[in-house]
TrEMBL record:
The keyword Glycosyltransferase does not apply. Keywords: Glycosidase, Hydrolase, Metal-binding, Zinc. Residues 3-185 form the Glycoside hydrolase family 42 N-terminal domain. Residues 417-463 form the Beta-galactosidase C-terminal domain. GO terms for biological process: galactose metabolic process. It catalyses: Hydrolysis of terminal non-reducing beta-D-galactose residues in beta-D-galactosides. This is beta-galactosidase. Belongs to the glycosyl hydrolase 42 family. SUPFAM superfamilies: (Trans)glycosidases, Class I glutamine amidotransferase-like.
């Protein structure tokens, strides 16, 4: 009865299951290539980032994913936001899959109304085109849909396709696919090299270091029922997208030094070689944002025989006194630059070193005034340690704004629901919000598609003045 309750056994089992999945995909890939010469092989992953197998099958030529946006979950913005979908759902998938090997695409993108959700509403007119442009904006190389024709029998009779049940009539989503295809043809005359992007945009490049095993470990031993590892990461990601920053989710095998800023969120499982790489990155001029629950266990999920959390003391310039967890009905407060922010899921009470700056402190607890967030110079770079997880991400947003201002990295201030990306000398602005958004064109730019007043589910594409 204890077998599936042991944290370490569960961790080993999940590693084994992910390895088996990856190995099976590799075997399938090699078998196909044995008989299909000069044939690209991929698989369309569902972007469940914490399941551990995305990008793990190295025999695949490239990775791809599947994305459905409207299926009854109210993750959009406003009264009918569920007709458009979560504004970061495609962006996150792009930023996760693109860094795997640089080439990626979407094998299944929703063509319209589906059948398998709890409630299956019609997408907002223009939403399918918005999703297509969202995939393209993130740097994808292709996009496909499922399916071409709505089936006449079987489980998915109510699943829209590009054409309807007569096999001839183009559906609303099909017409939006057609519109997108024609717009892409137009842009071929205007596009330049893929990496032709503005220097201020590139200067905002930020990595988020991600290892699914951290989620496996923490979610097994949350210590607070309201803790959510992926939601914790999303607080930082959402702010970065509001900055108009290009973001890469990277693994430890990647080169940290490519990024002026790297965020290490709740990276619980760590070892000395990894911490040494973080130190080296910072000493050479990198700027690290490390968040609570990082490096508290070794790779096997064990607590080191040392002071709790002390593996990163030399990196952060802090020691941890203790951590606290509060009931959600009576949250605590953290004060930063005169403003107060609520928290309850996790808070580390820090003992800063002599050269550390204290950026935020706890309020109205028995540890009133004790540090929650610190900033520490190390070599040519810096380490910002965020020992607390806020209610709504507003504290995390202010921390990143302060850091980027300190570093002299200019950022935008896009509202939630509006994202912007660059590729091929083109700027692409996408509006998932419930209100029109007025975008200010960079000086000398030329509008190619849409208008600077971007409606809900609208798209603006402009050409840079190079």
């Amino acid at each position: 009865s204890q077998m599936f309750m042991n944290h370490h056994q569960i961790l080993d089992y999940r590693r084994f299951a992910a390895f088996q999945t990856n190995d099976f995909l590799n075997q399938q890939c090699r078998l196909i290539k044995k008989y299909a010469q000069n044939q690209w092989v991929t698989t369309n992953y569902i972007p469940n980032y914490d399941e551990g197998h995305i990008g793990g099958s190295k025999d695949l030529d490239f990775v791809s994913y599947t994305r459905y946006m409207v299926y009854g979950d109210n993750e959009g913005i406003g009264r009918r936001g569920y007709r458009v979908g979560n504004p970061l759902r495609i962006a996150w998938a792009n930023d996760f899959f693109r860094p795997v090997n640089g080439t990626y695409g979407v094998m299944e993108l929703q063509p319209g109304q589906v059948n398998w959700g709890s409630i299956n509403p019609q997408p907002l007119p223009g939403a399918v085109r918005l999703w297509l442009w969202s995939v393209f904006a993130g740097g994808s190389d292709f996009v496909c849909t499922y399916r071409y024709r709505q089936p006449l029998y079987g489980t998915e009779q109510y699943h829209y396709g590009i054409v309807g049940t007569d096999g001839v009539t183009v559906t609303p989503g099909g017409r939006e696919y057609e519109q997108f295809i024609n717009e892409i043809r137009l842009l071929r005359k205007e596009a330049t090299a893929y990496n032709n992007k503005p220097s201020d945009y590139v200067a905002r490049s930020t990595a988020i270091l991600f290892n699914h095993e951290n989620a496996w470990s923490i979610e097994r031993q949350k210590q607070n029922a309201t803790w959510n590892t992926m939601a914790h990461i999303e607080k930082y990601y959402r702010t970065l997208k509001s900055f108009g920053a290009p973001v890469d989710f990277i693994t430890e095998e990647k080169d940290f030094n490519r990024y002026p800023v790297m965020i290490v969120p709740a990276y619980q499982l760590a070892d000395e070689p990894l911490v040494s790489r973080w130190v080296d990155y910072v000493r050479k001029g990198g700027n690290l944002v490390v968040t609570c629950r990082t490096a508290q266990k070794d790779r096997y999920g064990r607590l080191p025989e040392a002071a709790f959390g002390s593996l990163i003391n030399g990196l952060t310039g802090n020691k941890m006194d203790f951590y606290d967890l509060l009931l959600p009905g009576d949250p605590g407060l953290v004060k930063m630059d005169g403003k107060e922010y609520q928290w309850n899921t996790w808070g580390e009470i820090l003992i800063p070193g002599e050269t550390s700056e204290v950026w935020a402190t706890y309020q109205k607890e028995f540890y009133d005034g004790k540090p929650a967030v610190t900033h520490y110079k190390l070599g040519k770079g810096s380490v910002t340690y965020v020992g607390v997880d806020s209610f709504d991400g507003k504290l995390e947003a202010e921390i990143l704004k302060k850091l980027y201002a300190r570093l002299g990295i200019g950022v935008q201030s896009l509202p939630y629901g509006v994202t912007m990306e660059y590729r091929n000398g083109l700027g692409i602005v996408l509006n998932y919000s419930e209100q029109p958004y007025q975008f200010t064109l960079p000086k000398g730019s030329k509008v190619l598609i849409g208008n600077t007043l971007i409606s809900t589910a609208g798209v603006l594409v402009f050409k840079l003045n190079n």
